[in-house]
Amino acid sequence: MDLTRSLDQFTCPFGGQQVELVQVEYEAGGMPLLRVRIRERGARFTIFEIDPATAERWGQGMLAWSQTQAKT
Q: Can you give the pTM of this predicted structure?
């Protein structure tokens, strides 16, 4: 059985998408992956499973962008 552990869950204030971050460890082995699950309004889902290096780059890019924006 694959092991999953929820890391965070939140709703985007503009658009209402539900975002969930889950660590996934497959029974077959391999490195743990980060599952990014985005639920749109209704039943549509977008799911990414990314490796640690991709998660780091994505996170750094998002953080760098957010730091250039005016805080409200």
A: 0.87
Closest CA to 32 of 21, 40, 43: 21
Residues contacting residue 41 through CB under 8 Å, at least 6 positions apart: 16, 17
Q: What is the DSSP letter of 71?
A: P
Q: Residue 71: its pLDDT value, please?
A: 77
Cα–Cα distance for residue pair 30/28, rounded to 1 Å: 7
Query: Is there a contact between 18 and 9 (Cβ–Cβ < 8 Å)?
Result: yes
Tokens of 52: 């640690």
- List C-alpha distances in Å: 11 to 7, 56, 70: 14, 22, 21
- Computed over every residue of the chain, the mean pLDDT equals 95
Contacts with 49 (C-beta within 8 Å, 6 or more apart), sequence order = 24, 33, 34, 35, 36
